[in-house]
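Lab channel / #folding
Pinned by the channel admin:
"Please post every new chain as: sequence first, then the structure tokens as a reply. Keep commentary short and put observations after the output so the thread stays searchable."

First post following the new format, from NK:
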Amino acid sequence: MLSIEKYQHQFVQFLENYTTEKEPQNLYEPITYILGLGGKRLRPVLTLMTADVFNGRYEKALNAALSVEVFHNFSLVHDDIMDDAPLRRGETTVHEKWDVNTGILSGDAMLIMAYQLFENYEATTFQALARLFSKTALEVCEGQQYDVDFETRNDVTIDEYLKMIEYKTAVLVGAAMQMGAIVAKASITDQNNIYEFGKNLGIAFQLQDDYLDAFGDPKTFGKQVGGDIIENKKTYLYLKALEFSNESDQEALIALFSSNPEDVNTKIQTAKQYFETSGSAKATKEAIQEYTNKAFAVLEPLNITDDKKELLRAFGSSLMNRTV
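Reply from TO:
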């Protein structure tokens, strides 16, 4: 087993060899650009690490890991177009740097390239990877549509929100880990369990993101604290605050999350006050722990050594104790 940093290093080297210059330049240059913007590379690292956990060789999982990363970045290119977002990871988004049509077409090419990478595996592995990938890719699209739908609804439930983040974020984390298990030829039971581990960790990760967006340290969070509040996003914090509040506070909170005042700092502080006094902030932290515990429970039946279970547990704990 390698350290997280070494998996990242090996993956980035593989990625750099993959992103060579091709023609037409205006199709491939934006792809090289978005793939080169960095990020945590969490999903591909999980693919490599899981292959090692199940006694495969991480090198054999590099193509699957790259497929996950190419797909993830394809979804970001198209999400940024839908959100009209000017920045991604602190840099200009693809559709702003080039144009919307280039963003759409380069994104489409990335989806095809993600599938193409499975061709480097023998038939049974290819089939298993492609089947999982197709299911996951469709769920990610469904999750994105739920997210779009929720923007214009005031009746989103907690269950609906959890389903949205499961599909939009968590299933790809689960799939990334299952792909590593598939390449390592782990049993179907172990494949399914490691998927559940990744999925539950992915839900906890997104809930932690919701929490940090409101209560993170501006020095370490990496983006504007309170961004979700400014954009009137109905996060877990918001939905729980509604659930726990009396009628007058509910009305005030709904009004706050329908407003776009010039003084965003006052709006952020007011929202955070509601989150804390209602018990929503506490409930969100409890939900993060609940999904982390669900992930850890799935480790018990895995057919791997105790030290590898502990390594996965330590990795999960480090994600939940992050400040960025």
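NK: The beta strands are 87-88, 91-92.
TO: also worth noting, DSSP finds 16 helices and two strands in the chain.
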